[in-house]
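Can't paste images in this forum, so I'm doing it all in text. The chain is below; anyone willing to post the predicted structure tokens underneath?
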Amino acid sequence: MNMVYKHTIYLLLLFIAACTPKQYSATNKVYKKQVKKFGKTIATYPLPAVADSIQMAEQWVGTTNLGLRKPNFVIIHHTAQNSCEQTLKTFTLTRTQVSAHYVICRNGTVHQMLNDYLRAWHAGNSKWGSNTDINSASIGIELDNNGFEPFASEQINSLIQLLDVLKKKHQIPSANFIGHGDIAPTRKNDPSILFPWKQLADKGFGLWYDPLPSITQPDSNFNHLQALRIIGYDIKDTTAAIRSFKRHFLQDSTRKINDVDRMVLFNLYKKYL
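Text version of the structure:
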């Protein structure tokens, strides 16, 4: 294994050990074990000569041009649980098979549970545009909220600060800050209808529509379903897609699109073109 790579892994493990509370020392050992395992996998000769149909070279010539996965989306969730501690426990139990990169508590405390360059299991069966493997292209952020309560100002302030760091670090486009309900409209509604999407959009995290008085009526041939598809929504279930769009942009959970909804959608649609 390359010495630089080994040194990088070593520093990462030291950072994890230093930042982890003693109460999570057991699960931290599991995390470190997984990191070491992935390190060995990456350093292994990529394709063993096991197939007769492949004539492999005797020597592996490794390229000098490579990198880790690049997260290009941020997906925001609410935990649907009753405390930050409950969520941390959920994400450290192997049997749950769920995880996120960050958990933000009600008081604004931020827990980083996974390196940005590794793949968390937060999006599940989801789609945005043509991307059907959101986990491989995104950072997942969980907000400690049961889904029926307002989001604390301390929590939103911490979220905005974190998003600012992530956006600059990974050069994530403004339009790519979206919610779990947007990418999985038939299964999820998080973050809830109470989430302040406009506040985030005003800071550059997610798109928003122009003030209603200045929005023009859509053309007579405007197809709202195709507009939803162009924005990114999966329109296989059109009712679910409409409801998810309205929850995000209009804080409305109804299933039918009205004239105001069409105006807002038309305005956003033009921003994506």
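The chain has a mean pLDDT of 90. Residues 164 and 205 are 8 Å apart (CA to CA).
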